[in-house]
């Protein structure tokens, strides 16, 4: 939600991403309450992340990233392969101008938020991760299968 619109997404039994006016009521199918709609490359398990003016989401549980302008639905970049990652269940998150994508094998990709794909770092722990990362202050918490990790500058 960004105050004016709610962003809904599904990759289960079909793909759809929609921006719907937040004050809409009833069945909004085929109405002007739907600001935009995309029907390809949406996530199955991971949620999207709205950061700045862009909405970022992965295809299914894979390392294929799409970035769209949240207001218009215009694709900023499409099918960008996330280096170092394969499969993801964790939802991405963002802070301090960066986005964090965590793979099921314990790899975290840090990238700059914005209209250009820019890798900042790839980090790996040897513990599988399915849970979404949590950011608190300057710390990132990662819940692995065996341990809880806290990483800080």
Overview of the structural elements:
The protein has 153 residues and is mainly beta. Helices cover 0% and strands 47% of the residues. The chain is built from no helices and 14 strands. It has strands at 5-10, 16-21, 34-38, 49-51, 54-58, 64-69, 75-81, 93-95, 98-102, 107-112, 118-124, 134-136, 139-143, 148-152. The strands form four sheets. It has a four-stranded antiparallel beta sheet with strand order 4-5-6-7, with no helix packed on it. A four-stranded antiparallel beta sheet has the order 8-9-10-11, with no helix packed on it. The mean pLDDT is 96.
Task: Describe this protein with a few key phrases.
47% strand, 0% helix, single chain
- Beta content: over 45%
| Poorly predicted sequence stretches spanning 5 or more consecutive residues | none
Query: Helix tally?
Result: 0
Topology as H/E string?
A: EEEEEEEEEEEEEE
Number of strands: 14
Q: Which descriptor suits the 3D outline?
A: elongated
Percent helix range: under 10%
Terminal residue distance: 30 Å
CA-based gyration radius: 16 Å
Mean of residue pLDDT values: 96
Kindly report the spatial arrangement of strands forming the biggest sheet: 4-5-6-7
> Helices and strands: which structural class?
mainly beta
Largest sheet: 4 strands, antiparallel
Strands, helices and their partners?
Blueprint: E1 5-10, E2 16-21, E3 34-38, E4 49-51, E5 54-58, E6 64-69, E7 75-81, E8 93-95, E9 98-102, E10 107-112, E11 118-124, E12 134-136, E13 139-143, E14 148-152
Antiparallel strand pairs: 1-2, 2-3, 4-5, 5-6, 6-7, 8-9, 9-10, 10-11, 12-13, 13-14
């Amino acid at each position: 939600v960004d105050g004016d619109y709610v962003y809904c997404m599904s990759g289960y039994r079909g793909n759809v991403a929609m921006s719907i006016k937040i004050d809409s009521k009833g069945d909004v199918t085929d109405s002007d309450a739907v600001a935009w709609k995309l029907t390809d490359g949406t996530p199955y398990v991971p949620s999207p992340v709205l950061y700045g003016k862009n909405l970022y989401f992965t295809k299914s549980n894979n390392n294929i990233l799409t970035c769209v302008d949240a207001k218009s639905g215009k694709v900023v970049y499409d099918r960008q392969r996330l280096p170092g990652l394969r499969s993801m269940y964790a939802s991405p998150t963002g802070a301090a101008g960066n986005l964090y994508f965590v793979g099921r094998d314990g790899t975290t990709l840090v990238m700059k938020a914005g209209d250009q794909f820019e890798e900042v770092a790839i980090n790996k722990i040897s513990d599988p991760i399915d849970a979404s990362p949590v950011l608190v202050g300057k710390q990132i918490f990662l819940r692995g299968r065996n341990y809880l990790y806290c990483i800080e500058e």
